[in-house]
Amino acid sequence: MNSIDIQNKDSKYIANTYKRFPVTLTEGCGAIAKDPEGKEYIDFTSGIGVNCLGYADKGWADAVSEQAHKLQHTSNLYSTQPDVEVAEKLCEYTGFSKVFFGNSGAEANEGAVKVARKYGMEKHGSQCNTIISLNNSFHGRTITTLSATGQDVFHQFFFPFTEGFRFVDAGDVEGLKKAVDDTVCGIMIELIQGEGGVVPVDSEFVKEIAHICEEKDLVFVVDEIQTGVSRTGTFFCYEQFGVHPDVVTMAKGIGGGLPLGAVLMNEKTSGVLGFGQHGSTFGGNPVACAGAKYVLDHVMDETFLKAVNEKSAYMIEKLNAMPQIRSVTGLGLMLGAELPEDMTAGEVAAKCAEKGLLVLTAKTKLRFLPPLTISKEEIDRGMEILAEVLRG
Predict the structure, then answer these.
(1) Cα(3)–Cα(37) distance, rounded to whole angstroms?
(2) How far apart are the C-alpha atoms of 145 and 133, rounded to whole Å?
(3) How many other C-beta atoms are found inside a 10 Å radius of the C-beta of residue 141?
(4) 130-173 pLDDT, tens digit each
(5) Rounded CA gap, 366 and 240, in Å?
(6) Alpha helices in 162-301 (DSSP H)
(7) Cα–Cα distances in angstroms (integers) from residue 229 to residues 78, 93, 106, 149, 312, in the given order
(8) Residue 276 near residue 250 (C-beta atoms within 8 A)
(9) Three-state SS for 345?
(10) How confident is the model over 283-307, as pLDDT tens digits?
(11) Whole-number Cα distances in Å, 206 to 220, 289, 296, 363
């Protein structure tokens, strides 16, 4: 089928919940994707931060294929080697004690909510079940993770939303202190508010959250769904903020393209969930974990991380050189670019796609999440297209 045929069938048979670009992708290699007609696209999105090693990395594909020929799935009533290897690597590298595997970021954040609430109720009483989140945050699309999301635009249609969430502004220390009472069991934040506009949270405010959680015996949860797996130049973004949370959630890049999410728990929280209190049919799937093992073997390497930071500096320099870019935010290869008031991010992204560059948006900004393996030559090609669109 050609691109139009596929798009027509998409419109006819698939639920209309995505505002798709008129682009059909059929294959790719590295940071380059192709449509059925052979048109190439430079990809500055990596599947919204998922394809951290790019399209069809040979080593990753071989690892996944080899596992699929051995054991594609078994229930979590039994142990398997791939998920144990990934769990060991994560815990040994990060210093966390235990990991729970799911399939997505939303599932991971649901798991973190359960950990925080059970910890609070067991330690401080049945009234201790409120979680503080930040305004402008985004934590997922299930009813509960939407409830934890601090953007009114998401709090529509699906009432009643899950109770027990309270919001404060990022950076508002006094507001945070006032919000903490004996009903609060945890504080949940993103360190860079990705969907909120690629907005980093002030590091001193993050340290104050960590201090309050330690002082009040609350569960400090950091959502690293988009910032984790070396996306920001360190394996986890929290490493750059001088804190160590009680719970970290991750997904997207860890599977390298296959569905995988995880909840990492420290010594304080690792024993909270008991038998039958949480689960996932596909969590820790052997094939997904085989891909994750290959990903972690690469992205935890210091040379790899150095290259991510070098490419980050290169992209920021290129973006700042464009007169139409008003500012650049973010860390590593998670960047946002503010446009002039007479340009909308959606229109610019659509024009870029027409010319062969795939970019994302976040509110008024363009958002860039290229594969961590992208080359400077590929960055240059993408930036040339972006500059041409902005000049037009």
Answers:
(1) 7
(2) 11
(3) 14
(4) 999 999 999 999 999 999 999 999 999 999 999 999 999 999 99
(5) 24
(6) 173-179, 203-216, 286-299
(7) 27, 12, 17, 22, 15
(8) no
(9) helix
(10) 999 999 999 999 999 999 999 999 9
(11) 10, 31, 26, 23
The answer to whether the CB of 237 falls within 8 A of the CB of 331 is yes
Helix (H) or strand (E) holding 334: strand 334-338
Question: What are the φ/ψ torsions at residue 261 (nearest 5 degrees)?
Answer: -135, 165
Q: Which helix (H) or strand (E) holds 123?
A: helix 105-124
Cβ pair 286, 67 in contact under 8 A = yes
Confidence band of 273 (pLDDT split at 50, 70, 90): very high
The length of the chain, given as a count of residues: 392
β-bridge pairing 184-189 and 130-134: parallel
Which pLDDT value is given to residue 89?
Answer: 98
Distances (CA, A) of 84 to 99, 100, 208, 265: 10, 11, 35, 15
Q: Which residues of 324-334 are buried (b: 16+ CB within 10 A; e: fewer)?
A: bbeebbbbbbb
Helix (H) or strand (E) segment spanning residue 346: helix 345-355
Cα→Cα distances 268→42, 105, 125, 128, Å:
44, 22, 17, 17
* Consecutive H or E run containing 153: none
Name the DSSP letter for residue 226: T
- Tell me, what amino acid is at 188? M
Q: How far is CA 331 from CA 105, 309, 312, 341, 389, in A?
A: 20, 9, 8, 24, 24
Spatial CA neighbour of 103 closest among 370, 285, 248: 285
Task: Give the type of residue at 128.
Answer: C
Mean pLDDT of the chain: 98
- Cα separation, 228 vs 235, in Å, equals 6
